[in-house]
Amino acid sequence: MLTIENLHANVGEKPILKGLNLHINPGEVHAVMGPNGAGKSTLSHVLSGKSGYDVTEGSVIYQGNNLLELEPEMRAREGVFLAFQYPVEIPGVSNIYLLKAALNAMRKHQGLGEVDAMDFLMLVKDKIKLLQMDEKFLYRAVNEGFSGGEKKRNEILQAAVLEPKLCILDETDSGLDIDALKIVADGVNSLRSAERSFLMITHYQRLLDYIKPDFVHVLAHGKIVKSGGPELALELEEKGYSWVEEQAA
Amino acid sequence: MSSSTQEIEQLIGQEYKQGFVTDLEVDTFPPGLDEDVIRRLSKVKNEPEFMLEYRLQAFRHWQEMDSPDWAQLNIDPIDYQAISYYSAPKKKEDGPKSLDEVDPELLETYKKLGIPLDEQERLAGVAVDAVFDSVSVATTFKGKLKDAGVIFCPISEALQDHPDLVKQYLGSVVPTGDNFFAALNAAVFTDGSFVYIPKGVRCPMELSTYFRINAANTGQFERTLIIADEDSHVSYLEGCTAPMRDENQLHAAVVELVALDNAEIKYSTVQNWYPGDKDGKGGIYNFVTKRAECRGANSKVSWTQVETGSAITWKYPSCVLLGDNSVGEFYSVALTNNYQQADTGTKMIHVGKNTSSTIISKGISAGKAQNTYRGLVKVAKSAAQARNYTQCDSLLVGDRCGAHTFPYVEVKQPSAQVEHEATTSKISEDQLFFCQQRGLSAEDAVSMIVNGFCKEVFKELPMEFAVEAQALLGISLEGSVG
Ligand SMILES: Nc1ncnc2c1ncn2[C@@H]1O[C@H](COP(=O)(O)OP(=O)(O)OP(=O)(O)O)[C@@H](O)[C@H]1O
Ligand SMILES: [Mg+2]
After folding, report:
1. How many other C-beta atoms can be found within 10 angstroms of the C-beta atom of residue B77?
2. In this predicted model, what pLDDT tens digit does every residue of B227-262 receive, in sequence order?
3. How far are the Cα atoms of A80, A130, A158 from residue A101, in angstroms, in the given order?
4. Which of A55, B24, B38, B339 is the most exposed place for a label (fewest CB within 10 A)?
């Protein structure tokens, strides 16, 4: 599904990613952990095509194609979804309008017609139930006045409606209370399938209790310095990052 | 400047789609303005004597006035002698009696603009008066309106058929000497729409006038007069476009609205005059005086405007709230791009007791454009318990444009409540990227964000005109889901 090889990326003159390698097969869940400022969000932005980053070396192959060549909206339409660490507000644009516009953009790309209004309403109501959100959120402006946790839940609602192939979750668990964490995790788990892959950025082992990853990676100083199974997260929780960083050095 | 800001600017800078010219045989006066021109004009239009007097008086007044210079605008001096004051498509003897007699070229022009005049093709609930350069070329659904007692016709026709009504109300809201452009309009106006809704009648359909400037070197000076008699109701929309020309063209209209006891007038404008090219060459000077008098108790006037065109817009649709409990509303979207300049807003003059007004203004500037809101809320001593709420929001696209807000408030009545809120924001790159990450093109993302910003105003536009507004705006209206 996704193969990242020797990825180097700068912000301005400053190198952030420095030779990152990662391979994700369809259906796999990969957790990425690492200290603040290591480059985790940068990785998610480079993969989704945010401007302001220069890729100076390396390659990213997604479903057999060079991902870095595509415009951000084309990546999205090809199934790359990013749940933002800091979701933005869009005043005046209702959540349901955004969802419909986004879904129709995907459908158009797939050669399908616009979604039928009734079908869409059923779909959205179904998904919002899954995330145990009040239907009122559909008619509020995108993220405007949402609490931190509500914004994160809203990101997963979008993923549930758009059904991406590669789902990048950037600290979706941060800011969620204990109940919400469980609900969001259930939402994510219900999206898991043999075709859909996840790249899950998190600081907390707790999330991994709910969403069992196939692999855990440590990202430090712009590259993956250690990879392992779920037990690696437990070890990190116990010992912190310094021992991995030392090992890698 | 970042790449995505440039991108946003490109997207807003879509080409003007209504900029074509229609080839027609026309009757045009040579350029120039003096009393003889006015006499000729009045004669061509076979006007009653009082009209000629009215025009001459206005002209004499105008000659003593100066062009206003208080607006936040850079206006090249206008040579009023270089303008032709009358241009009309040549017609057989006494003009088209029905649509069948209208020049097919003209029908084609309106069709191209998305305004088919063919009644079968029209949305069933909308009657249209089409004004081409100086004259009205067609009015649809006259029969149906007549059955309801509604008069909807070109003002030149009203001068023939209902001279007393015109004489009673013309200039009663905007006097001939009101301001420079209003005086000029009173002297030389050629056509426009006239509406009279009799007592107790709810106009059975939306009324609409579509203004089109075609000829070069002509000015368009139209005059609209709408009278809503007691307990009546009417909703009216005007749309406007012009061909792309390198010279600036002057459009100096006057609109007068009169609402008597318990009457309601809803006046919506979608203005898309040619804005000039991206370097600021050409475009329409849109210098318009629009004023409503809520003369009767419990009357209501609501102005909704979507202004996207013109090189320069100078326009302050106003409400004089004379009747007790009368209500004035102003909802405005003004979008300026490239070198466009807009100085627009409203005046709410509270005179009657317990009068209330609402002002919602949304200004969007892109490119090197300047967008100014100028508003006056005036509460006279007599206006006990008057209330006003004003909200002015500006959205900037890129960092070379400007937004300015001048809210003037004059309150002479201590029991009045006047509230003002203002915000300025920018389309952020993060917002744009977020939308793209959800699969929207940057173009759709900008349009969605701008539409979201304007939502409170768009929802005031009559639903029947959604399609028309969309065609004229070049920005799609947000869908009805939600
Ligand atoms: N636009 C920018 N300008 C300058 N530095 C930047 C910019 N964007 C990111 N950086 C720097 O790049 C580094 C990596 O940032 P990134 O957001 O990817 O970290 P992270 O691993 O997601 O951290 P956290 O766990 O705190 O979210 C940081 O040192 C950050 O300050
Ligand atoms: Mg981060």
Report:
1. 6
2. 999 999 999 988 765 555 556 678 889 999 999 999
3. 17, 21, 11
4. A55
* Percent of chain B residues topping a pLDDT of 90: 42
| Residue A216 in domain | yes
pLDDT of res. A194: 95
Q: Does the model's pTM come out above 0.90?
A: no
Give the range of the structural domain holding residue A204, as residue numbers without chain letter: 2-86+145-248
* Every domain of chain B and the residues it spans: 18-427, 428-482
State the pLDDT confidence band at B205, using cuts at 50, 70 and 90: confident
- Inter-chain CB proximity A92 and B455 less than 8 Å: yes
Helix, strand or coil for residue A89? coil
Side-chain half-sphere exposure of B183, counting CA atoms within 13 A: 17
Probe target for ligand 1 pocket from A8, A11, A47, with the most ligand atoms within 8 Å of CB:
A11
Could you give the C-alpha distances from A234 to A33, A238, B470, in angstroms and in order? 12, 6, 57
Q: Largest alpha-carbon pair distance within chain A?
A: 57
Number of domains within chain A: 1
Number of H helices, E strands in chain A: 10, 12
Model pLDDT, residue B336 = 81
In this prediction, residues B149-159 reach a mean pLDDT of 90
Residue A125's CB is within 10 A of a number of other CB atoms, namely 12
CA A154 to CA A124: how far, in whole Å? Answer: 12
Q: Is the pLDDT of residue A41 over 90?
A: yes
Tokens of B367: 């490119």
CB within 8 Å: B482 and A87 = no
Among A40, A86, A172, which is best to mutate for testing ligand 1, by the most ligand atoms less than 8 A from CB?
A40
The residue length of chain A stands at: 249
- Spell B426-457 as b/e; 16+ CB within 10 A means b: ebebebbbbbbbbbbbbebbbbbbbbbbbbeb
Cα separations in angstroms, A122 against A102, A116, B481, B482 = 16, 10, 13, 13
Inter-chain residue contact A82 with B437, CB threshold 8 Å:
yes
Helices (H), ranges, B22-174: 35-44, 49-63, 104-112, 142-147, 155-161, 163-169
Strands A2-11, A54-62: pairing kind:
antiparallel
**ipTM of this complex:** 0.96
Residues B342-377: tens digit of each pLDDT: 888 999 999 999 999 999 999 988 778 888 899 999
In a domain, A214, yes or no: yes
Q: What is the CATH number of the domain that holds A29?
A: 3.40.50.300
Ordered DSSP codes for B249-282: EEE--EEEEEE-TT-EEEEEEEE------TTS-S
Q: Which DSSP state fits B37?
A: H
pLDDT in tens, A72-122: 999 999 999 999 999 999 998 999 999 999 999 999 999 999 999 899 999
Using the mean position of ligand 1's atoms as its centre, give its distance from the Cα of residue A41 in Å. Answer: 7
pLDDT at B478: 26
A36 within a domain of the structure (yes/no): yes
Question: Mean pLDDT over residues B298-326, rounded?
Answer: 91
Which alpha helices (DSSP H) does B155-215 contain, by range?
Answer: 155-161, 163-169, 180-188
Tokens of A245: 């960083």
CA of A196 to the centre of ligand 1 (A): 27
Residue A110 in domain: no
Model pLDDT, residue A197: 97
Give the per-residue pLDDT at A161: 97
Which neighbouring-strand residues pair with B322?
Answer: none
Of the candidates A93, A19, A81, the residue with the CA atom closest to the CA atom of residue A44: A81
Cα separation, A76 vs A168, in Å, equals 11
Side-chain half-sphere exposure of A67, counting CA atoms within 13 A = 28
